[in-house]
Amino acid sequence: MTTTNNHENSENTRPELLKILCILTFIGSGLSLVSNLIMFMTIDIVREYFEKGMFDFLEENMDLSALEILVSINSIYFLLQALLFGLAVYGAYIMWNLKKIGFHFYLIAQIILLILPQIFYRGCLFHHLS
Length: 130
What we know:
The chain has 130 residues and is an all-alpha fold. Among the domains are: 38-72, no CATH class; 76-121. The protein is 75% helix and 0% strand. Helix 2 (16-51) crosses helix 3 and helix 4 (76-96) packs antiparallel against helix 5. The protein is elongated. The relative contact order is 0.12.
């Protein structure tokens, strides 16, 4: 009887590496989910401030070309990224519950997150590859 209990416990225990990877995914993708939702909701305000020159004081310390790219992107980009980061968190949650299908959700989200900037940035990122 104890042999079956030990066998059941070994099947239901979460490997340490899986714990670490899932926790890191919950933190990283969770924060990215929140930040992209905030950007989606506030990008119009940021664009308005940028057009009025309210970010000009930053020119002394940094190049504003990154901010120019940010305000020129379609707001749907941030919504799509938020949804994909949500899918990654969902996949990690399923993996946390020891279901292998969660890895597929996570992997699909990560692959699309790699492709998405190429669609919206058109030549800004990885321009040396095109």
